[in-house]
Specification:
single chain; mainly alpha; 4 helices
Length: 84
């Protein structure tokens, strides 16, 4: 498929997801308290910037933003915790 065909196929889904995100952010903003100091909001804002950019590999970059760094010692820690 070419770019226009993919856009034709995906447009309504993209539109729906963007509306869901906007509605969620509106609910957070209208609610009591302030979530702006929460690190998750910073991640959400950064992810929106990534998605809106024209740089390649946006999905990978967003996934890495929300992922923990690989910890080579995870297995030994897991084994220690399971023995306790």
């Amino acid at each position: 498929m070419n770019a226009i065909e993919i856009l034709d196929q995906e447009f309504l889904t993209i539109r729906s997801r963007l509306l869901d995100i906007a509605a969620s952010l509106d609910r957070i903003q209208r609610a009591e308290g302030d979530a702006e100091s929460d690190s998750r909001m910073a991640h959400v804002s950064e992810a929106i910037e990534i998605v809106g950019s024209r740089l390649p590999h946006r999905a990978e970059r967003v996934q890495l933003l929300f992922s923990r760094e690989y910890d080579e010692a995870w297995k030994s820690r897991y084994e220690l915790e399971s023995r306790a």
